[in-house]
Amino acid sequence: HRPVVPTSPDALAAAARRRMTRTAWSYLAGGAGAQRTVAANREAFGRYRIVPRQMVDVGQRSLATTMLGRDLPAPVLFAPVGALEVAVQHQLGRGGRGAAPRNAEPALADAARDLGLPLVISSQASTPMEDTAATLGDSPRWFQLYWSSDDALVESFVARAEASGCTAIVVTLDTHVLGWRTMDLDLGYLPFARAEGIAQYLSDPVFQQLVEARVRATASSDPGTTTARPTVAAVRSLLSMAAHHPGPTLRNLTQPYARAAVETFLDVFSRSTLTWTDLAWLRERTTLPLLVKGIQHPDDARAALDHGADGIIVSNHGGRQVDNAVAALDTLAPVADAVRTHAGTDPAQPPVPVLFDSGIRTGADVFTALALGADAVLLGRPWVYGLALAGADGVRAVTEHVLAELDLTMALAGVTETGQIGRHNLAV
Ligand code: FNR
To answer: Keywords assigned by UniProt (predicted)?
Structure first.
């Protein structure tokens, strides 16, 4: 009898892949271009080696840490992953495409709550953040923002995040244009052309106003455009989702509204004119700590801190944005050093947190990232694979495997607390 959720990262990915349609797998596992950076993110971990130590009393160990003033059971968070419902619906053996129960994000939130680890709620979540917040209870949550071209929508998302109990805002800077995702392109797959892909937006009052304005404008100027390509398939898909979605917004969708929703989303989801000075505007919109995600250069880390960021997330979006980009892990130590030695930082304040993602698959990977200067890591694709295999139990199992191996690795490296892990634990 073999466990449903394998402990080996490759076996985990392979098992999840067998359960999915090609489109779901391509969306989840795929990266930019020739997939070189996806591979490089993993290969980089092979270039740093942990040095085991002997005869250290490691009988009492703890993974506990604090992050932005809050105690956490381990230095691990759930990375924001958009359009999750679309991916999980594309499972084989669950009644086929579109027939699976709508349970991806509630299952994720269940697991995050049970583990007590923060969930970073995606802007592009397939469930409104208020519903996820209800499932999370008192468990920690952050909100990940894609900086919309519409100021009022940004303000609305931030206000909803605050009201939903989020204790930090993570603004993702590396996706102001979407990468060249070859696997999706070749299958003609656009997850955000489906209602679940943009449910976070559809549940937003400002977004609804934008859509309604577009519906009115389209109806008066060119009623013939309702059959225009390329959004017809998207509209059809939205309508089929609307039929069984419990929320009032989707239930009331009419065809022009559905099409306008997708078009509005594509219009407003990002803003590629941003520069560092714009960060002050966002900084003024919330009292919550503001973290920037997607940093890979020490100068960008310094600029972020100079312009009001309270934390840095080193990430290359799991290799989904720039192919041939440097492995995320190779940028971690220079960025962490830049943050630690930053001139403007007040030594009386708690240190600015540096987080890392892109390539974490195992507990040993977490150890390596902490050794290179991360205070915590975000787990991405592995928990999605766990979710696809076994719902909330799968997310819990994957995360517990990572934490168990981190704990063992600490023991075998002669370390009892995550804060002790440093470059001295690596071979140079
Ligand atoms: C992501 N990521 C992401 N990031 C973000 O800020 N907002 C988002 O909505 C998403 N959506 C998303 C969907 C999917 C399917 C993937 C795989 C990734 C990036 C994510 O937060 C994280 O940076 C990467 O997943 C890290 O890479 P690995 O460890 O998963 O390879």
So the answer is: Oxidoreductase
3-state secondary structure 133-198: HHHHCCCCEEEEECCCCCHHHHHHHHHHHHHCCCCCEEEECCCCCCCCCHHHHHHCCCHHHCHHHH
Question: Where is average pLDDT lowest: 25-39, 72-86, 234-248?
Answer: 234-248
Neighbours of 201 (CB within 10 A): 30
**Spatial CA neighbour of 423 closest among 54, 58, 48:** 48
More confident residue, 69 or 90: 69
What pLDDT score was predicted for residue 224? 53
SS3 104: helix
Residue by residue, DSSP assigns 279-322 as HHHHHHT-SS-EEEEEE-SHHHHHHHHHTT-SEEEE--GGGTS-
- How many angstroms does the Cα of residue 78 sit away from the middle of ligand 1? 10
69/167 Cα distance (integer angstroms): 10
* Residues classed as catalytic: 317
The closest residue, in CA terms, to atom 5 on ligand 1 is 80
Beta strands in 244-398 (DSSP E): 290-295, 311-314, 354-356, 376-379
φ/ψ of 312, rounded to 5, equals: -125, 135
Q: Please tell me the distance from the alpha carbon of residue 170 to that of residue 129, in angstroms, as a whole number.
A: 14
CA atoms within 13 A on the CB side of 214: 22
- ipTM of this complex > 0.90? yes
Atom of ligand 1 nearest to the CA of 123: 9
